[in-house]
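In response to a reviewer's request, we include the raw inputs and outputs for one of the modeled complexes. The two entities were modeled together in a single run.
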Amino acid sequence: MPKVKVPRSNPSLDMTPMVDLAFLLVTFFMLTATFRTEQAVVVDTPSSISEKLLTDNVLMVTVDTAGRVFYNIDDQKVRVKVLENMASKYAVKFSPKEIKEFELMKDVGMPMADLKKYLAADQSVRMQMDKSTKGIPYDSITNELADWILFGRVVDASVAEENGEDAGRLKVAIKGDSEANYATIRKIMKVFQDKKVNSFSLVTNLEGK
Amino acid sequence: MAELSTDDGGGKKGKHQKRRAKKSSTKVDMTPMVDLAFLLLTFFVLTATFGKPKTMDINMPVDPKDKKNVTKVEDQTAMTVLLTERKEVIYYYYGVLKADTKIDSTDYAATGLRKILLDKNKGVIAQMDALKAQKEQGLLADTAYKSKAQLVKSNKDALYVIVKTNDKTKYKSVVDVLDELNICDVDKKAVMDMAPSEKAALKKINN
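The model returned the following structure tokens for the whole complex.
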């Protein structure tokens, strides 16, 4: 009886399409990835059913559980100019390197007196300072927050004009921690309202209905 | 793993002693590259952060310069919501606070504040539902829908809600109540500080 010949199939598999797909996905995720920068403060926002997205150009004031206030403005060009304005008002001199550091940062919660030291420090020292800071002062005696807001809006309007954009492009957002006191948020709104800003975006998580 | 060597070395010794040039495979072993590709893929998929945070827009009343010319809201119809440091309880009453006004309490569950609001504001909600249905059928354009919705919501019969807070109210409570108001199509709303009389009334309840 003749031996039944099992056809010897080639065990190798053409992986080209799979590899193509894998690389396509890798490229996609690499290009869309935006790395989260080290956050100065972690805030757990309350949830709402609102589906409105936060716009790109935002002046954000963050309030954490302890009521500390942090300031952030998205546009890097605006950031630098705001810092220059603040520096001349509070008579603090920043080196070009410190200005560059500030440009690349996000939330900042330092009083002007400590800001220079903060910008000159390295990452680990900064994290320590973020933990121990009392936030940007916003009481009636030293209202630095009001100045940050004022310069932020003025500078943003002029930059928008240069670019031929709408001068009202800047949105004001408040990102408060669930456990923060509403009284603190109210005070910050008051600071804004003194500067004729009456509509705010409250940052929330999306909640299932 | 992916590519098994199938040629048998080319060193066959038999009748054909002629030496042939060794025919090397044109295939490259892609396994390490694929491994790397998938490693990177996994990394980027896991670190990707999709979705921006959502926002809830709120308009605060402009501080009037001339306090005498302020139009007063018909307090008789208004519902006042009192928020305290207690995170589960909402106190509320209707109309103007008098000595005999009954202050009720409710909570944030769907059967709590929302049920009350849905009931009190059902006229507006019915109209809004009709508008939404029209919009979904394509009978109403987006802009027309928005202006009509605005009209319905600011109707004088619509429920007016005043949210009052004290110094210890949590931010979450306020956002939650505003969220409930949005769900129930309550557009006439205001957030303000608690009056001393209301604080005193609450103190009496809690004792």
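As requested, we also summarize the result in words. The first strand of chain A starts at residue 47 and ends at 48. Chain A has a mean pLDDT of 84.
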